[in-house]
Amino acid sequence: MAEAAACAAASEIPTDLKRAAQAGPEDLLAADGYIFCAPENLAAIAGVMKDFFDRSYYPVLGKIEGRPYAQMVCAGSDGENAARQTARIAQGWRLREVQPPLIICTHAQTPEAILADKVIPEAELSRCRDLGTAIGAGIAMGAF
């Protein structure tokens, strides 16, 4: 999902795709906008994404207000709580949501399905690319 969105955004603007474990405050400060992408685990954002937000929140507070963001959540069934968590963090940073959360459900409900590698259908990846294109174009045009 993240790769699809980043590749599409890169057709509009310079784009840097980072895993949460490797990203930090300096990446937020350097960017003109953001697409936060995370799996939902146990009705919450994944721990590695929470760690990214924990490490980055205060160092950029007051320095990135008004920048555009969107988010994508890969969920087993719902994804709403993970989206709310990210939106609350973005609200604290005073980011500007430019699109509602894109939640893709894998419908993984058994231990085997939850632990298995996920394959996102092409139609859903197309939605991720559309989000990336829209964010990239909006930034490139100065609309955000």
Task: Describe it.
The chain is α/β, with parallel strands linked by helices and 144 residues long. It has a single domain (2-141), classed as Flavodoxin domain (Rossmann fold, 3-Layer(aba) Sandwich), CATH 3.40.50. The protein contains six helices and five strands; from the N terminus they run H-H-E-E-H-E-H-E-E-H-H. It has helices at residues 2-10, 25-30, 47-60, 80-93, 111-115, 122-141, and strands at 34-41, 44-45, 68-75, 96-97, 102-105. Strands 1, 2, 3, 4 and 5 form a five-stranded mixed beta sheet that branches. Helix 4 (80-93) links the parallel strand 3 and strand 4. Helix 1 (2-10) packs parallel to helix 6. The chain is globular.
Q: Total number of β-strand segments?
A: 5
CATH class: Alpha Beta
Which CATH architecture is right?
3-Layer(aba) Sandwich
What is the CATH superfamily?
A: Flavodoxin domain
Number of helical segments with 4 or more residues: 6
Shape: globular
Low-confidence stretches: none
What kind of sheet is the major sheet?
5 strands, mixed
Summarize, please.
The protein has 144 residues and is α/β, with parallel strands linked by helices.
Keyphrases for this structure?
144 residues; alpha/beta; Rossmann fold; 5-stranded mixed beta sheet; 6 helices; 5 strands
List the helices and strands and how they pair.
Blueprint: H1 2-10, H2 25-30, E1 34-41, E2 44-45, H3 47-60, E3 68-75, H4 80-93, E4 96-97, E5 102-105, H5 111-115, H6 122-141
Parallel strand pairs: 1-3, 3-4, 3-5
Antiparallel strand pairs: 1-2
